[in-house]
Amino acid sequence: MHLEHIHHLLLLYAAYLIAVASPGPSTMAIMGVAMNQGRASAVALALGLMTGSTFWAVLAATGISTILTAYAEALFAIKIAGGLYLLYLAYRSANSALSPTARQVKTDTPTRRTTLYRRGVLLHLSNPKSILGWIAIMSLGLRPDASPHTFQAIVAGCAILGFLVNVGYALIFSTTLMARAYQKSRRWIEGTLAAIFGYAGIRLLLSKA
């Protein structure tokens, strides 16, 4: 791989890192689960998010997602589903914020972690902006003069960065210090999560793209 291609990949990685690390519904969901339900649960959610992200990356690279965006009905359905799911998460957080006592979390089990993993996958797959974002990344990375291994480098590099960021959030916010902070500020934290999820859901439902 030529030096120019490596430099181009590094710029692409930097852009992806900024995007994945920026506060948003996904990162806030990881933080909330980490503080409220612990490390294993948060890591399961983070891995689900990364699975959804990788799925869209592969589709974008193969051109299938470009076909998806050509059909307004398909993208519209995904947008509606994503917006409603975010509003559902907002409702759950708001309900917890208004509750005078902390919601009792079921004992962490493999079954519960599987549920959170699926929640992470759904959260990412139901966001049409993820499709468009990966199309943009692949359009920038897969240039006509790109190396045959560029696709693998993009997916692998972004997957590693996404894993480090998302699992890093899960590990940091599941510490004892953060758990104590959650218990003291539970209603404020859940209220903030409700506002973020609600805003993201309404914005997604009302967006034209």
Structural commentary:
The protein is mostly helical and 209 residues long. It has one domain (3-206). Helices cover 83% and strands 0% of the residues. It is built from 10 helices and no strands. The model has no long low-confidence stretch (mean pLDDT 79).
Write the layout of secondary structure elements.
Layout lengths: L2 H19 L3 H13 L1 H24 L1 H7 L1 H27 L11 H16 L2 H14 L8 H23 L3 H9 L1 H21 L3
Protein structure class: mainly alpha
Number of discrete helical segments: 10
The N- to C-terminal Cα distance equals 36 Å
Helix fraction, binned, reads over 70%
Poorly predicted tracts of residues: none
Q: Tell me the series of helices and strands, N- to C-terminal.
A: HHHHHHHHHH
Largest sheet: none
Please provide the count of β strands.
Answer: 0
Q: Quick one: overall form?
A: globular
Give the domain tally. 1
Q: Estimate the strand proportion.
A: under 5%
Kindly report the average pLDDT value: 79
Cα Rg: 18 Å
Descriptive key words:
single chain, 209 residues, mainly alpha, 10 helices, 0% strand, globular
Brief characterization of the structure:
With 209 residues, the protein is mostly helical. The chain has one domain (3-206). Helix content is 83%, strand content 0%.
